[in-house]
Design a protein that fits this description.
Blueprint lengths: L2 H12 L23 E3 L7 H5 L5 E6 L8 E10 L2 E4 L14 E5 L8 E7 L4 E7 L5 H9 L6 E5 L4 E6 L5 H13 L3 E5 L17
Length: 210
């Protein structure tokens, strides 16, 4: 898909009555984060332990003032000491952050969650975000998502149609991209990649008229 096609697709979706949470990398859009996504299809030694060990975790936050429909996103994270945290869920809205990245986060005040300042160590995981078309029923969605296990993909679901995909470090990024692009061309879903849009920022890009 060309960048022109992607831009037209984003424009179509933004003008629809039911807005998806994003467009495509370079045009990324998002909506408000769910405080605790629904975990699904987790392989062994992945985030299943998160459900059982929430008392050992903390919440950290990232401000996203340029997102068209949200001001920020919160993450479950394992405190590691010295203001370091390991992300324990797949990002739904921030760019340039991935599952199990280690970040530095500090509080602006005692009343606020620690705010992510920088990545200290990248995990090697990669993130894709998927919004299924409304006519694609849940069993079909899950069949599609389950078929991507061989590509080292697992996922967390935010809504009935909005899913965040985690690709393990040994996965093939181009193969995942090509698979999602094929599904998008079949009008099954739209997706975006989630690399940083601007160095040193986890936010969307400002609107051009700002």
């Amino acid at each position: 898909m060309s960048s022109s096609d992607a831009n037209q697709n984003v424009a179509r979706l933004k003008n629809s009555q039911t807005l998806p949470p994003f467009g495509r990398q370079g045009d990324g859009r998002s909506s408000e984060n769910m405080s605790h996504p629904e975990f699904e299809v987790l392989p062994e030694n992945w985030t299943a332990q998160l459900i059982m060990n929430e008392e050992e975790l903390g919440k950290i936050h990232i401000d996203l003032p340029n997102h068209w429909a949200t001001g920020g996103e919160s993450f479950w994270a394992t405190p590691l000491g010295d203001d370091l945290f390991r992300l324990e869920n797949v990002p739904f809205y921030a760019y340039g952050l991935n599952f199990h990245d280690i970040v530095r986060a500090t509080c602006d005040s005692e009343e606020q969650k620690p705010e992510i300042r920088e990545i200290v160590a990248m995990s090697g995981h990669r993130t894709f975000r998927v919004y299924f078309e409304k006519n694609i029923e849940r069993p079909i969605q899950e069949e599609i998502l389950d078929s991507m296990r061989d590509l080292k993909i697992s996922y967390e679901r935010a809504t009935k149609t909005f899913v965040s995909l985690d690709m393990q470090p040994e996965g093939n990024y181009q193969a995942v991209f090509d698979k999602l692009d094929e599904l998008e061309q079949q009008n099954i879903l739209v997706f975006e990649t989630c690399d940083a849009k601007r160095e040193g920022s986890f936010d969307d890009l400002p609107e051009e008229n700002e």
